[in-house]
Write a structure and sequence with these properties.
The complex is a heterodimer.
Chain A lengths: L6 H16 L8 E3 L10 E10 L15 E10 L3 H15 L13 E5 L3 E3 L2 E11 L1
Parallel strand pairs in A: 1-2
Antiparallel strand pairs in A: 2-3, 3-6, 4-6, 5-6
Helix pairs in contact in A: 1-2
Chain B lengths: L9 H41 L11 E9 L2 E8 L22 H23 L3
Antiparallel strand pairs in B: 1-2
Helix pairs in contact in B: 1-2
The chains are: A alpha+beta, B alpha+beta.
């Protein structure tokens, strides 16, 4: 019997993949879950959230197949540069889009929606969300 | 012995096809209106649960409207109206100081699949 991935499994896999990709930037940045954000915020970082979403895989006739659907959100934050926030966005996209992550048996991650990177309380930030099914 | 009684003919099908061309737009308009209404209700419910004390008026700013119908395209939108009290708050996608609430995304999770299925069924229904 296959064990279904937990929310923690998905979060760990997402953070590992995204951080490996962010580490390839000339100046390395880090992605954090909210509880791991340093109390003094870094000048540039990505904040990651993972949550279950309604549904999963549905047959045309309406029946649900035994799968679980997930959503991950990424907020790209930079104290001074929209360009750098976009660089982080691009590294996250490279790590996730159309990719099945190690450690979790899932469908490839799909882009869902995006918020423009723009002013955010004196800083700059924007958000993406991606979805997958395990 | 099995027998088949033919009660429809090709000319009747041709006549039906002509009617369907005009009827389909009306049916799809009402399907879209219903989906917008239900999607907005769901989003409003999610917003009521997530907005908290500081955003008491936020759920009341939700509305739905059909925005375009023509040239074979029907479009609508629902969600917080920025002109309404607290309608412009950044709850949906959050900010660096606030996690995203995703009320609209959550409602789309529910209504998205149902809407697609309903469209298919109502088109199917036009032939019967």
């Amino acid at each position: 019997m296959t064990t279904l991935a937990t929310e923690s499994d998905v979060a760990v896999a997402v953070l590992a993949a995204v951080n490996a990709s962010l580490a390839t930037l000339a100046t390395s940045r880090t992605a954090y879950s909210v509880d791991k954000l340093p109390s003094v915020r870094p000048s540039e970082y990505v904040e990651v959230g993972v949550t279950r979403r309604f549904g999963g895989q549905q047959r045309v006739g309406g029946a649900w197949i035994g799968t679980v659907a997930w959503r991950a959100t990424f907020r790209y934050v930079s104290q001074s540069s929209m360009t750098n926030a976009r660089l982080m966005r691009e590294r996250v996209r490279a790590a996730l889009e159309f990719v099945e992550l190690d450690g979790v048996d899932s469908t490839p991650w799909q882009f869902e929606t995006a918020e423009d990177i723009g002013p955010d309380d004196g800083w700059f930030s924007g958000l993406d969300s991606y979805t997958t099914t395990t | 012995m099995t027998s088949i009684k033919v009660s429809s003919h090709l000319d009747e099908l041709a006549a039906d096809m002509e009617k369907i061309a005009t009827k389909a737009e009306r049916v799809m308009l009402s399907t879209t209106r219903e989906a917008l209404k239900v999607g907005n209700m769901l989003a409003k419910d999610f917003a009521r649960a997530s907005s908290g004390r500081h955003g008491k008026l936020y759920p009341r700013s939700f509305s739905a409207e059909l925005t375009f119908a023509g040239f074979g395209l029907i479009a609508g939108e629902y969600g917080p109206d920025a002109e309404m009290p607290q309608g412009g708050m950044s709850f949906e996608w959050g900010s660096r100081n606030q996690k995203p609430h995703l009320d609209l995304n959550r409602s789309a999770d529910v209504i998205g699949g149902s809407f697609a299925r309903e469209v298919g069924e109502r088109i199917d229904g036009l032939f019967w």
